[in-house]
Design brief:
Order of helices and strands: EHEEHEHHEHEEHEEEHEEHEHH
Shape: globular
CATH architecture of the largest domain: 3-Layer(aba) Sandwich
Oligomer: single chain
Radius of gyration: 19 Å
CATH topology of the largest domain: Rossmann fold
Largest sheet: 7 strands, parallel
Number of strands: 13
Distance between the termini: 36 Å
Helix content: 40-55%
Structural class: alpha/beta
Length: 313
Amino acid sequence: MRILITGGSGFIGRFLSAEALRRGHDVVATYLATSELTNPPSPSGVRWELLDVRDRAAVDRLVERVRPDAVFHLAAQAYAAKAWESPSETFNTNILGTVYLYEALRRFPPREGTFLAASAAAYGTVTKLPIAEETPLNPVNPYGVSKACQDMLSWQYSANFALRILRGRLFITTGPGKSGDALNDFAQRVAQLERAGKPGRLRVGNLDVRRDISDVRDVVRAIWTVFEHGEPAQPVNIGAGESFSIRSIAESLIRLSRVPITLEQDAALLRPTDEPDIRSDTSRLRSMGYAPTIPLDRTITDSLNHWREFGSR
């Protein structure tokens, strides 16, 4: 099967590309900048294509040339802070980029279908836990709005144009090599202090919150499960189905550290508002036969070891 993965050079895209190769598929994956392919090295065996999803003509040409049997749409502006700084850039990438892709797929429909990496950010502030797929989408930041639009566009194109588009609403996904999340920010700092070889401080924000966190290697299995067994009319939460204390993550890394480290709260890292707990209802995903296999302790250890190896490069 020929698979097209947009955003294949991203964090999840790399693991998904490697898994698709392991399954024996022909993988074409896109990147936006050459540096994305070298740091860290990209999976070998992938055919890489330069693509900016904001360029409609380029999207059309790529889809026509590749004629994929399956598409995994991961290309996105994925940072909430950046979305606040530039909502228009986020909307152009996440919303218009998705429209351009789906318009191209109308001309050359992939016979196996398309998977959209949707986001739990589309739920916004909720009052009832765990968060089920029936929860109304009520995003509270530009990034969440863009992902809600992607989500709804996917259903609209499925319903109106007979495209099989599956929606997986991802909660926090982390693992070795991730950047921009608490676990890996902490792990990277611990590795830096270890290289310095002396006691240090780990600056943190609000540790008294809990988050639904999954290992990327489990998430990739979940993505395949949704792609193979999902229905376009039913979005599927992809998460752990439980929440973990951010404080416990920081404390675990301190225990693993090779030098003494103390925690220090930094007011600059505190957010104006912070939901005390975020937790997914994964009943629909589990009914498809999926269950996570990688405990958080392993994710923490593997992430720290990654930054011990690559952090100074």
